[in-house]
Specification:
The protein has 268 residues and is of the alpha/beta class. The chain is built from 13 helices and nine strands. α2 packs across α4, α2 packs parallel to α13 and α6 runs parallel beside α7.
Length: 268
């Protein structure tokens, strides 16, 4: 059984929702990212989204764009991201990993090499935000053959496409809470609850909500309406705030601790 499926089954038995942090890997460096993944797991994360830094992240807001720029200055590659996940697992983060990558780095790496890399490093899921349903056939087939879940995104504007998008979903459906790019928000789309209900009614797999969730109160707001929440920009912002500490070997532990405390504050 895929680790994602096993985790959702366990959470369902326990009556809990999944907490899924997103990290831009390589910000501020690969060693720090491995430590940050490990403390996310220790602080209660159920899965981790591994962000592959990209020069033109169309779905991402300014916080994650800046993190990608910092990682790219370190020449972080897709392969580096996956190998960092393996290092984090060695540090104790034995939870499912989901690779979040735009399609171009995957194509440049080559599909054969790409799926071999994911299988070798026990990556459970894959999110490709710029690959529409109509064009994901080859990647989906390769992912299914490798036992890796290709997780679809569905937005409040999807309307009649919802049923088509979720029909082939694996792992979970990523419900986009708001229109536009990622980033922290004080309010969500006016029809968000109706949208989530429609996705849940159509989906054969769990649903999770992301884009804009940045506090314990907002995590609680979606408790019972979804099977999990994804928190990205708020965590990446905490890492950005802690950069002076994280970049100093003598103070890195304090920077990591600050991020860990924030993750713990989100755990319902």
């Amino acid at each position: 059984m895929n680790r994602i499926d096993a985790t959702f089954e366990r959470l369902r038995r326990e009556g809990k929702s999944a907490l899924i942090p997103f990290l831009t890997i390589g910000d501020p460096d690969l060693a720090a990212s491995a430590e940050l993944i490990a403390v996310c797991a220790a602080a209660g994360a159920d899965m981790i989204e591994l962000g592959v830094p990209y020069s033109d992240p169309l779905a991402d807001g300014p916080v994650i764009q800046r993190a990608s720029e910092r990682a790219l200055q370190n020449r972080v590659t897709l392969e580096d991201v996956v190998r960092t996940a393996a290092e984090a697992r060695r540090l104790g983060a034995d939870i499912p990993y989901i690779l979040f990558s735009y399609y171009n780095p995957v194509l440049q790496y080559g599909l054969d090499r790409f799926f071999k890399l994911l299988e070798e490093h026990d990556i459970s899921g894959l999110i490709v935000p710029d690959l529409p349903l109509e064009e994901d056939g080859e990647l989906r087939d390769r992912a299914e053959a490798a036992g890796i879940h290709l997780i679809p995104l569905v937005a409040p504007t999807s309307h009649e496409r919802i049923a088509r998008i979720v029909a082939r979903a694996r792992g979970f459906v990523y419900c986009v809470s708001s229109l536009g790019v990622t980033g922290m928000r004080s309010e969500f789309h006016a029809t968000i609850d109706d949208f989530l209900a429609a996705v849940r009614n159509a989906s054969p797999v769990p649903i999770c909500v992301g884009f804009g969730i940045s506090s314990r109160e907002q995590v609680l707001r979606f408790e019972g309406k979804t099977d999990g929440v994804i928190v990205g920009s708020a965590i990446v912002r905490k890492i950005e705030e802690a950069l002076p500490l994280l970049r100093d070997p003598g103070k890195r532990a304090e920077g990591v601790r600050q991020v860990e405390q924030f993750i713990r504050s989100l755990r319902v």
